[in-house]
Specification:
The protein has 4 helices and 2 strands. By secondary structure, it is an alpha+beta fold.
């Protein structure tokens, strides 16, 4: 699917479910990206933006999904496989299962309550 197809589905169905999902995702990801407005994309590709020399252009696209409660979900994904991994990223951004089990064990042994929450957009490696 594409953004155009999602918006066309909204129009055909007389609703704005996909439009709202797109706006929500773009609002959430804006905090992780710094816009560069002093040059056009063509000028940047030709190397005319000296401050961006050394950066790699990667493509992005939207992934669309309908959740179990029938709400629409969009995710902006970037082709990170097209760039080299920075040397400073030598760890996994995901907690190990054993760490969680150990935390539950410590909580149980100390009669502590355990809380949980869902973070809708967590960009662990964002600036």
């Amino acid at each position: 699917k594409t953004v155009d197809e999602a918006l066309r589905l909204d129009e055909e169905n007389g609703n704005d479910f996909w439009e709202k999902a797109l706006k929500k995702e773009m609002k959430n990801v804006c905090v992780a990206y710094k816009p560069h407005v002093s040059h056009t994309p063509g000028e940047i590709r030709k190397g005319k933006a000296k401050e961006l020399i050394g950066y790699t252009e990667i493509s992005c696209r939207m992934i669309f999904d309908v959740k179990m409660d029938l709400t629409r979900k969009c995710r902006l994904v970037a082709g990170g496989h097209m760039t080299e991994t920075p040397s400073c990223l030598t760890y996994s951004s995901v907690v190990a299962r054993d760490s969680v089990r150990l935390a539950f064990l410590i909580a149980a042994m100390n009669d502590l309550d355990v809380g949980a929450c869902d973070i809708g957009n967590a960009y662990l490696n964002a600036p």
